[in-house]
Amino acid sequence: MNQVAPIITADAEPLPTPKKVFVKTYGCQMNVYDSQRMSDALAADGYVGTEVMEDADLVLLNTCHIREKAAEKVYSELGRIRDLKNERRAEGRNLVIGVAGCVAQAEGEEIIRRAPAVDLVIGPQTYHRLPDAIRRVRAGGKVVETEYALEDKFEHLPAPARKVVQSRGVTAFLTVQEGCDKFCTFCVVPYTRGSETSRSVAQIVAEAEQLAGAGVREVTLLGQNVNAWHGEGPDGRDWGLGQLLFRLAEIPGIARLRYTTSHPRDMDDALIAAHRDLPQLMPYLHLPVQSGSDRILKAMNRRHTAADYLHLMDRIRTARPDIALSGDFIVGFPGETEEDFADTLQLVREVGYALAFSFKYSPRPGTPGASMKDHVDEAVKTERLVRLQAALAEEQAKFVNSLIGKTISVLIEKPGRQAGQIVGRSPWLQPTIVDESAGRIGDIIDVRVHGTGYNSLFADPI
Ligand code: 5AD
Ligand code: SF4
Question: Which residues form a coiled coil (predicted)?
Fold first, then answer.
């Protein structure tokens, strides 16, 4: 796969074979976006991507530190890559190993101490310096780059070529904000991604126009606290995400907009109004709550109560009645009793989530939660997670089943797994399988839902 043949010029001198990079991405959508931007920065330096690690001259792991399991996966993968590096060395070739992302930011040099085969450690704020860092590695030596320079990154990351955007499909991510100032007591993000920083309106609009020009129909705005985004609008006023969404909706070609991930404290009136008034803004909102117990919410430093959250969800539903609500939950935070957990189950039933993500609490080094008293037994966490996920699965099934018989619009994204099928995306994110005669990739068509799978839909063209 992705074998690159040497190019033969007129005088039959083979050009050097391009260097190949294999990027493996862990964690959230922002890491997916960052991996693309790292690939773009390396493409400008002559690298081509490969899907096969064994073919690569450079392996980059873009890592996640959010839970212990995610971080530990990286070290087991590094063990395998070290063996590959040794094989290469025996053949007289070099394989450069880089660790990027949140583990790189959190652990820095420690990664090279634990995994000496690693050549480069680069934090998320420094990707614009990646080609230079790799040149320094190739010149001999180890490189650790974890200094914050978010504005620099926003300013200097190269835009991908039109062809590259096209190869990535008709939906795209666009980072508008990075970092977090909320300091929830369970969370490493404020330490790995730094403080809340917004990209400028001009940068965001330019990138969105470029995506639209290459055929992208749906853009998902990304940020660790995306609804904390703000910036000076062309009218000289301070804009929030609501105003930004209205501006992006004016770009020809962009038919659908989404954003993730939000904090309840930053859902302002203008953003709720955008859900009411902006047809391009898809009726889907991921708004993590983490727990339904006020006691635990306080210990988590969420700075809202369960009632605040329910009230907010009501206001959003009133503004956009067909909205699908989604959330994140943590079970077994220190001190969580059976009663606290019952409050979480109660909240799940009250909201009626269309989709949700739930996790066992994982103590993270350096966060206040890790040193709290009354850590919950692992077996209790597991048992609560099973019960929570059963409740969430029921709510999710209710939601997809409510779509049967309805006419919905889907954006056609890719060929289906089976011949004769194509896969589109519903306004509420469910993959929707339709006969391929229904339209072409990039089309937005109306279909009638006739069946459901686990968070997927089967539909007929109308
Ligand atoms: N343990 C378990 N889950 C966590 N999350 C964040 N930090 C932790 C942790 N220490 C979850 C939260 C967050 C999602 C991205 O990951 O639910 O919203
Ligand atoms: Fe993981 Fe958070 Fe980093 Fe994303 S920002 S990769 S979820 S730790």
Answer: none
The CA distance from 452 to 66, in Å, is 32
Distance 184 CA to ligand 1 centre (A): 10
- Closest CA relative to residue 233, chosen from 264, 270, 273: 270
Tens of pLDDT, residues 319-369? 999 999 999 999 999 999 999 999 999 999 999 999 999 999 999 999 999
Q: With CA atoms as reference, report the closest residue to 356 among 298, 293, 289, 426.
A: 289
For the chain, the structural domain boundaries read 19-148, 153-402, 407-461
Distance 185 CA to ligand 2 centre (A): 15
Neighbours of 170 (CB within 10 A): 23
For residues 442 and 286, the answer to whether their CB atoms sit within 8 Å is no
Topology (CATH) of 153-402: pyruvate-formate lyase- activating enzyme (3.80.30)
Pick the CATH number of 407-461 from 3.30.200.20, 2.40.50.140, 3.90.1150.10, 3.40.309.10: 2.40.50.140
How many angstroms separate the CA atoms of 73 and 66, rounded? 12
- In angstroms, the CA 449 to CA 384 distance is 34
> Which ligand minimizes its atom distance to the CA of 26?
2
Strand order in the sheet with 171-175: 171-175, 218-222, 256-260
Q: Burial, 116: exposed, middle or buried (Cβ in 10 Å; 0-12, 13-18, 19+)?
A: exposed
Query: Is pTM, for the whole model, over 0.90?
Result: yes
Reference 215, options 254, 249, 178, 183; nearest CA is 254
Q: Could you read off the pLDDT of 38-91 as tens digits, one per residue? A: 999 999 889 999 999 999 999 999 999 999 998 899 999 999 999 999 999 999
Query: Which one-letter amino acid corresponds to residue 78?
Result: L
**Ligand 1 near 185 CB (within 6 A):** no
**Ligand 1 atom 2 nearest Cα:** 361
Binding site members for [4Fe-4S] cluster: 28, 64, 102, 180, 184, 187
**49: its two tokens:** 């991507």
pLDDT 10s digits, 288-310: 999 999 999 999 999 999 999 99
Strands (E), 196-269: 197-198, 218-222, 230-232, 238-240, 256-260
Does residue 290 line the site of ligand 2, with CB under 6 A?
no
